[in-house]
Every structure is written in C-alpha cells, then in structure tokens.
Amino acid sequence: MQAIKTTGYTIYFNEDCYGYLQDLLASENYSGIFILADTNTSQYCLPNFLAQVATELPIEIIEIEAGEVNKSIETCIEVWHALTDLGADRKGIIINLGGGVVTDLGGFAASTFKRGMDFINVPTTLLAMVDASVGGKTGVDLGVVKNQVGIINNPIAVLIDTQFLETLPQPEMRSGLAEMLKHGLIADEKYWNNFSDLTGLTTDDLGALIHWSVEIKNTIVAQDPNEKGIRKVLNFGHTMGHAIESQFLNSATPLLHGEAVAIGMVLESYFSMAKGFISKEEYEVIKSAIISIFGTTDFTSNDIESIIALLVHDKKNERGKVQFVLLEGIGKAVINQEVENILIINAFHDFQK
C-alpha cells in the first residue's frame, strides 16, 4: 500500500515500515531506542517487531499495564522515571508499540520528557491504526475523564503493519470498526456502504479499508490541524461515547473505546433525526447497522443521569455549553450543535427498545 503523507510526517504500511525504520536508524545519530509497550503487546507483538529491527543501537523496553485505566498521569510519571533511570537523553527515540493507550500516553511522555524527544507510533490495534495514526493527539485521562491532559504533537512517522491484527481478540477488532464506520458517516457515504455486509470481508479487503480510513481522517486533519473548526467532525459519536466510557471505566463491565463510541454514534444520530438533520429512515439504517455489529447495552436511569453529568468535561465545550457533532445525512456532518437533556434521555430510551 502506498504511504500517506500528512502534515509533518508520513504513514508507512506493512513491508515499507521496516525499510523506513532501518534507513532512519542508520542515518540519524540516535543515542538509543526506547520501546514502550503494554503487557499485551510486549507478549504478542514485541518479538516480531524486534525481529524486523537490525541496529547496533542499544534498545531498552519500558512496559506498562494494559487497559484504559492505566492511561493516567501516574503511569506517565512511571514512564518518565524509567526514561531517567535508563539514561535517556534528547537524542534518543521512543517507539510506541501498542493500541491507543500506548500511542497517546507514549506520545505525551516523549513530547514532554526533557522538553521533547523524537517518537514513532506503531499501532497494533485496528482502532489505533485508523484513529491514533493521524493527527498528533497525545495525552492522558484525568481520573475517569477522558483525554483531559495532553498536547497535539506529531510523531516523526507512523508504521502500520496489519499483521499485528492477527494477535487481536475479536472484541478489539470489532472496537476498531467503530472509528471506520464513523469516517464513512461523517465524510464518505461510499465508504460507509462497504460495511453493510461484512460476511465476505477478506484480509486484503480489510487492509484496503484501513488505508481508505486513514486517508479520510488525514484529509480532514490537514484542513484543521489544531481542531479549531472542521476537524471537530471527527468527534462524532465521541461526546456521548467518552461519557459512556467514563461511566463504565471502573465498573465490573468496562466498555472498550470503540464499543462506547458505537453507542455514542447511535445516540447522536438520534439527535440528528430529532433536530431534522437526517430522516427517520436514515437514522434507522444507521442504528440497525451499528447494533448488528455491536449489539446493545443496558443503561439504568442512574447511569443516564451520571453520563449527562459527565458531558460537562468534554473538550469541545465552549462557555459551559456542551457541543455535539451531528449528521446532515450519511457522509456529511455539522459541528457545534447544542442538544437538550430531554433529547439525550429520549435517545437512550430509543436505543434500548
């Protein structure tokens, strides 16, 4: 697959990833390599990755616990301490090998340690490949509130090797589909239509859809790198989704990011219908497609009340008002929309029918 050039760096795919990496390590005078992995990627992905890296530079492994609950400032402090103990300096390079937790946290740690080190993201989950690979968002959660602390800072490259997907359990694969569905809903109806029937999907088909998804996101981000305007459309499903994810983060049944965003997309499609932006038929098509993949989740009245309260922390809010991204049809979105609480409650009730 052809590399995708973004504003400031390039995304490489499959065999091209390792050719780029070898050339980089041979040409740049790095003092050392620091690979950040979690307990899952350390076991299932790191051996194969290291087998592709031929260098005389010293390589150190920093391992964190897996899971969204560990995307915290406390874990980031542990990474900073590890870098310090290992003698990292600004001429070292950090390679973040993992899903969105690793790339977000690792990018933030790299961007702030000694005021900035080079870093490369190697996403190993479907969700990270189509979402975290573009845009330079880094950061950590603050308690259960998602992405409250961070900066936008680009890696020097992103390496997407789709063979890592073979290590993923089915729920993680399904989680990644949420971001791909989102890209179709906000920007490309033709892309959305590819997900109407997934029964015949092959590995090659998935690789092509990943590339297409990255292109969609890159086109949007290139117009608005700092999320002042059009880039906000990428948050469709996320205003509700992040609040839902936060609500269940420390419960006995936490939701994966993509699972929460999938629910968020159904709810925010309901808002779009209620405000007259999309037809009831379009809403039903969206709802049916997403529920056929992700199923439904039960919410108590207390859950809904807590989720509404959590919306005040969304990073798109302005002057104390919650700002939603809504659809104006399949393949088009509109930003900065306010939604009344009664609509949110009605949307939950409709979702659970």
TrEMBL record:
Q: Which organism is it from?
A: Flavobacterium arundinis
Q: Specify the 3-dehydroquinate synthase C-terminal domain's residue ranges.
A: 176-317
Q: Where is the 3-dehydroquinate synthase N-terminal domain?
A: 62-174
| Name of the protein this chain belongs to | 3-dehydroquinate synthase
Q: Name one GO molecular function term.
A: 3-dehydroquinate synthase activity
* The EC number(s) this enzyme carries: 4.2.3.4
Respond yes or no to whether keyword NAD is given for this record. Answer: yes
Keyword set includes Lyase: yes
Q: Which PANTHER family match?
A: 3-DEHYDROQUINATE SYNTHASE
Provide the leader sequence positions.
none
Cofactor(s) for this protein? Co(2+); NAD(+)
Name the UniProt key words of this record, in alphabetical order.
Answer: Cobalt, Lyase, Metal-binding, NAD, Nucleotide-binding, Zinc
This chain's function reads: Catalyzes the conversion of 3-deoxy-D-arabino-heptulosonate 7-phosphate (DAHP) to dehydroquinate (DHQ).
What taxonomic lineage is listed for the species of origin?
Bacteria, Pseudomonadati, Bacteroidota, Flavobacteriia, Flavobacteriales
